[in-house]
Fold this sequence. Notes:
- This protein has about 450 residues and is of the alpha/beta class.
- The protein is about 30% helix and about 20% strand.
Amino acid sequence: MWRMEPGLGQRPGPSSGLGQGRRLLALLITALWLARGGQALDNGLARTPVMGWLHWERFLCNIDCQADPHNCISEHLYMQMADIMAAEGWKDVGYNYVCIDDCWLASTRDSDHRLQPDPKRFPSGIKRLADYVHSKGLKLGIYQDVGTHTCAGYPGSFGYYELDAQTFAEWGVDLLKFDGCNFINLDMLIEGYVNMSLALNQTGRDIVYSCEWPFYMWPFKKPNYTEISKYCNHWRNYGDISDSWDSVKSVIDWTAYHQTVIAPVAGPGGWNDPDMLVIGNFGLSKDQQVTQMALWAIMAAPLLMSNDLRNIDPHAKALLQNRYIIAINQDPLGVQGVRIGKQHNFELWSRPLADGGFAYAIVNRAEIGGPLKFSVMMFGLDDGKACLGECLVTQILPDFQFRGIAVLTSVVDFWVNPTGTALFTVFPHSTEPSVKGRSLRGSTRPRSRL
């Protein structure tokens, strides 16, 4: 199927164990297709993974606007991010949600038991902020909690699900991130997530529903993902990501270990959420940023950046705005990719795409030494399904290049840096010279497929 080039401190190893991985993927794809028959939340939203910006990892619960007015959680921060997303290409490639996380609230509800924002940090109110974000052609997300209090100690939605849903709708909110801190017991946790889902749908406003339901269930029992997918548009499975390679690795490893449980339930309308993109911050090298972006695309994950768009380096911006990667993430087939092989320090991930294509990520998990060569034998990719007849191989990361027309017996080599990833696509290649006057050879073919 694939092999790592010997030498460079490594020994060649047998590939016989990879057949089981390919068979597992085939079973997963079958299950995915069966699961696509309508189990997802039927609100017409999130037909592809949500894209946008979320404040938490970068800005946390910074409410000291006197000492740090530039970075505190205030209406000014979200207005600035909306301005930049509209003006600097983010909206154009699909990032259209500006999302508030915890710490936007006042310490108490008002006299009518309605939620209210902190009056000093959000003096104009959430409705005015939503109007401003909408005026930029973007959407506003907000945060609340299923329990008595949010994780930071502000008023939660317990006992007020219908009222809070109606409040969000009246304010013009487009997405709700619903956390799970301070719940009373598991039955009430589940009931709360269900009740808020029903309440949101009853408002008559389109509000994407982002749950953390399974994350809070896992310490007690295996979540019922079939049930969760009926009520949520995407759901967190694992702990908060942080700005470090160790954190990103832990999310990747958890996802791969549980992929037979979580991947089959994902699809248009409902997605597994491995948490925020931390690209453009401080903790990841360029190669590690490439790896996070590539695998979040393969995993059909929501792309919610948490960074400072006012001060982001060109490499991170180009990576986050890469249309080819985004096209893989937003592929309309809606199948979540999975890890199909692991050998020495290398992992191979695969995601089926629309129009008969596949996307693959080769991850080098080594953290020592230099680049290693990884040889892909086309007949081994998804048991030959990726390259029946002739196929077009296009490398997306770490840099874009056409790798040419391959056949089933071809071998394509990739050099992958430590902690880095090579992302490429394989699409069927027609031997006909044109379709409706458009050449299928050269650069137009992969661009149309991506």
